[in-house]
Amino acid sequence: MLELSIITAEKTIFKGMVTSVTVPTVTGEIGILTGHRPLIGKLDVGGIRLVNEDKSEEIVFVAGGFVQIDDNKVAILADTAENLEAIGLEQAVEARKKAEQMLLESTDEINAEKLKAELRMMLIREKLAQISKYKK
Hints:
Layout: E1 2-7, E2 12-25, E3 28-32, E4 39-42, E5 45-52, E6 57-70, E7 73-83, H1 89-105, H2 109-135
Parallel strand pairs: 1-7
Antiparallel strand pairs: 1-2, 2-3, 2-5, 4-6, 5-6, 6-7
Helix pairs in contact: 1-2
């Protein structure tokens, strides 16, 4: 078993025992099982997939931060994280549309790069919201 904590600056998103965790890092996804070697990695935008003791699965949206693995403990310190159930599909679609509009209206190249990153984050968030809608 793994002791998992997913924490943002505002709150603890998840704290408990799981059998496995998959996290999106800037170098690709990492699957974590009991006995994983110590590691520190930088998180990318995506979904953290965790498998609970009862074999049920949960997905948590994450955008940036770090993961630390040591002695069957996984600590995720996220810049942004949301439980999949907390992401409303309509809200996610609206956020994506707003990001697309802001990118279209941007005239500054530096700002456009930031808006592209924001749009990527909103697209992934929307896809995860769609998953949540169909899991119910």
